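@here heads up, posting the sequence + SMILES for the magnesium ion run so it's all in one place. Ping me if the SMILES looks off, I pulled it from an old spreadsheet.
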Amino acid sequence: MKTLAILSRKGGVGKTLISLHLSVASQASGIETALIDLDPQASATGWAEDRENDEPFVLPVHGARLSKTLTQLREQGAQLAIIDTAPNSEGSSLMAARAADLVLIPCQPAILDLKAIRNTVDIAKLAKVKAYAVLNRVPPKGSIIEDSKEAIAQYDLEVCPKMIGQRVAYSYSLISGMTAQEYEPNGQAAKEFSQFYKWVENKLS
Ligand SMILES: Nc1ncnc2c1ncn2[C@@H]1O[C@H](COP(=O)(O)OP(=O)(O)O)[C@@H](O)[C@H]1O
Ligand SMILES: [Mg+2]
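bot reply: prediction finished. Complex structure tokens:
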């Protein structure tokens, strides 16, 4: 079983949205996927409650039980565990990073967000796990994209070459317990996310 942690000490950057979309993409490609919701706010768990489909398997977990939960999931045949984390808990973020084969750090292309990633980068470094920044809510064009990549490089962090745009299909689909791939399979969000998913799958293999 591979483990992927979605990490950021900043709230509202897209951790949950990306975790959910990755979980659905992975399950749809035939990989038994479990989404571990480490955030006490339980947004991912709430999404699963609104969902008609039982897959992917979403379970709320307390940080202290993470390691045991991962062992159990592995024994039950899960092939990928995706951990959605809370912004305000350094302890559980570090546990998630230590358990992970790969860490993704969602980041909005805005100066305050970019400054806030240092904390998260430090956690990934402490855990000695490969991490990439993922630019999320990217506008259709503008110099902010190149500026953001340069700013991220200063943290000695690589940037995922596939970016996620600011699109209503992402947020709207979640309201009804779906994701953009399901809500609008031929839309731009679904297309771009599938490129991003392929990149993640490749990094995990
Ligand atoms: N790429 C995107 N396009 C449109 N809305 C987005 C995008 N990414 C995140 N959002 C919205 O931004 C808000 C915060 O995202 P969320 O995943 O809950 O962040 P976090 O889990 O990091 O706190 C949510 O309302 C979500 O639907
Ligand atoms: Mg969240």
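MO: The chain has ten helices and seven strands.
MO: One more: The mean pLDDT is 96.
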